[in-house]
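Q: My labmate handed me this sequence with no annotations at all. I'd like to see what the chain might look like in three dimensions before we decide whether it's worth expressing. Could you predict it?
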Amino acid sequence: MIAVATGRILSIRNHAIDAPFPQITDEDKLTDAEAVISPTLNLKSVMPAVHLFRLRRIAGDILESVYIARPKHGVSLSRHTVRNMAENLSQSLQRWHLELRDYVLSDSDEYLELQIEYGLAVLLLKRPSPTFPNPTFAAVESCADVSRMVLESWAELESRNERIKTWLTFHDMLMTGMTWLYSRWRSQVDDHSTTEQVAQICSRLLTSVSQGEQRLTKYVRFFNRLIEVVLAHCYENERMYRPGLAGSDGPEGELDLNWTDLNFDQIFTEMDLGSQVDVAMDAWSSSIFVPE
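A: Here is what I predict for the chain of 292 residues:
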C-alpha cells in the first residue's frame, strides 16, 4: 500500500520481510471488562491481524508482477506469464475473502475494515495498470462491484464514528471513487442514478476526511466536477447512440469500448481545472484513465 501511495520509492518488497506472524499466548487473555469493549479481540485474538498480513503479502505479489513485472534477477516477464500470475493472484484474493468470516466477527468494525482492505487489493489488481492499461470487460465489472462495496463499507464505518481520518484514507477513497466512475463509464450502464448515488457517497466521505484543509479540498472539488462531467457524457452518449431513443442517429447497440476510452480521456481536458489539480493528480489521471 505504501508503494502505491508514494510511488514505490519507500516500499519494502515481500522478499525483504523476514518476520514471524504473531501467535496467541496465555497473556493475551482479556478480562471480562476488556472482553466487553473488544469482542473481536476476545474471541479471535490476533487472528484478524494475521489474516491482514496475508492479504498484504498478496498485495506485495501484485506490486511485483502487475506493476513491476520483473523477478529479482531483473529480467522482464512476458505478458502471458504476467497474465497467468494475475489470474493466480485473483484466485488467492478470492480464497482470502472466503476465509474472512473465520477470522473476524460478522458485522463488526474489524470485518468492515478487512472488507475494505480486500477491496483495495482487488482494485490494485484489476484496475488499469502499467501492465494492463485496458482491463477486460470482466475486470471492469469487478472493479465496479468492488469499488461500490468499499465505498459503502467506509460509509458504514462513518456512521459508527469508527473511521480513522488520515492522508492514506483520503488517497484510497479518491482512488476508489475514480475507479467507480471509470468502471461505470466503461460498462455503459443505463442506471445513471446508481452511478451518481455511489459517487456522492464518495464525495461525502472525501469532504469529511478533508476537514476543510485546502490541500485536500481541491481534490474534493475535482472529484465533484468529475461526477458532473461523467454523468453529462453518459446521458449524451445514451441519447445519441442508444437505439430507439428520440433524436438518436448513431450506430445501434453498445458503444465500442475503444471509442469510450478515447472520449473518457477528453474529460480531463474539458474540465479545465487548471491549477486546482496539481502534478500529483496528473499522475493519477494518467495511471487510472488510460486511453487505447
